[in-house]
Structure formats: C-alpha cells, structure tokens
Design a protein that fits this description.
Blueprint (H helix, E strand, L loop, with lengths): L11 E5 L4 H12 L3 E6 L13 H7 L3 E6 L5 H12 L4 E6 L14 H28 L4 E6 L12 H21 L4 E8 L12 H6 L16 H11 L10 E4 L7
Parallel strand pairs: 1-2, 1-4, 2-3, 4-5, 5-6, 6-7
Helix pairs in contact: 1-2, 1-7, 3-4, 4-5
Length: 260
Amino acid sequence: MGNLNADFADETVIVTGASAGIGRAVALAFGEAGATVVNADVREEPKADDEETPTHEKIEDSGGRAEYVETDVSDPDQIRSVIEAARELGGVDVMVNNAGVYTKTRFREVTPDEFERVHAVNARGTFFGTQIAANDMISRGEPGVVVNTSSDTQGRAAWDHSHYAATKGAIRMVTRSAALELAGEDVRVNAVAPGPVATEIREGWSEEAAELGPEGETPDLPLRAADPDELAGAYLFLASDDASYVTGETVWVDGGGHVC
C-alpha cells in the first residue's frame, strides 16, 4: 500500500493542543514532513504515561524545527500571540485548530459553567483560530490552509455528549462558512471528524476500552477505535497541494461509524 508523500519544507504549521493525543500525532507528522511546527497548548508536557519528551523537543530531536508557545485558545488575544510568534518563523502557512476539552455529562445535568468552558475552548477557539490565522495569511499576501478538528458527534447523537456535540456541530459550520467567505482570498478551510480514538482527552480511556466501547455507549464501528497516528494523514492531505481543490469539507476518519 502506498504512502502520502507530503512535503512541507519551508512551511510553518501551528497545531493547537499538540502536547498530547491527536494534536501531538499531527504535529509530529508535520515535523517529519519538513514543516516548522509550533505547538500552541496550555501545557508543554505530554499527558501519556509512556511519553516524557515534549512535542517540540521530539521534533527537534529528529532534526526538525519546532517551538512551544503557551496558549489558551479560549482567549483570542493568546491566539493572536501565537500567530505573531509564527511570524518570527516565516509566518503561518497551515493552522490546525485541534485543541479541545471533553466532559461526559447527561443533558439534564450540564451546568452553565461546564457548557461555557467546553464551548469556549472547542467552538470559540476554533472560530477565532480560523479567523485570526486567515487574516494573517491574507495580510501577508500568502495562500494558506486551515484544518479544524471536529468529531463524529457533529452528525450523530450520543449519550452524555450534548454540550460537546454542540461544539463539534458548530465547528462543522464554522468550517463551511469560513471556506465560503475565504475562497476568494486563497485560504482553504476543511475539517477532520475523528471517531473513537485512544487518547488522554477521556480519563480512563485505554486502547483496550476503546476497542470495546466506553460504558454507556454502543461500539457500532465497522472497524475499531483508532490510534492517534492513524488520523495524521488526513490532516496532511487536507493541508497539502493534493487537496488544492478541496475546501469546506469534513473528512470522516471514524472507522466507518458514521455509516452505521
């Protein structure tokens, strides 16, 4: 089976939430493809028990160029700061809005504070991450790409996910709306919708549990839960010249769950 031969040499890629999980896998993949990678995260250290080296250091250890910028994406001013930091590295060419938070709460029990926190990071962070990055690309007169992390819950209901799913549905429409308005500015905007992935975003979510499905959910997957590395290729494709005619799209990388 062939491999995607994406070359991002001389390009600067910002990945929010790249210290762990999907973001870390995506950042490492861009680093391996030659990009200068900026990890914009609230924490520098990885979360997984078997990982000790921060993402940017791991890229540098492999001969790449990377940087960590402490960033809370719920604050647009901090997003502007990381975009400015990327200018010192040549300016953002690819913006991956991946940072997200997840809580599992029944609909009747979601509090306003919990709702606001999840929406501030997931929905507002993606909206302004897209807007601020696109404005910078346009002001520099450079073409650019934005790739947002949505979820399979953007299109299906699941127990205890109402507030989280609402943010992912919002990301789908942010992606489509921004793609429409930015097409004439040479900025493409797409999204990836992962299904169950064995990451640290869910406490106690191990690979073994992911294969069976968490308690209270039905594991209706034609395939299985994914390893974060299995999602990275979708991000590289959408950011690459091979996807030059793709915008406003959500690529489902969910083990076939959306067809069930």
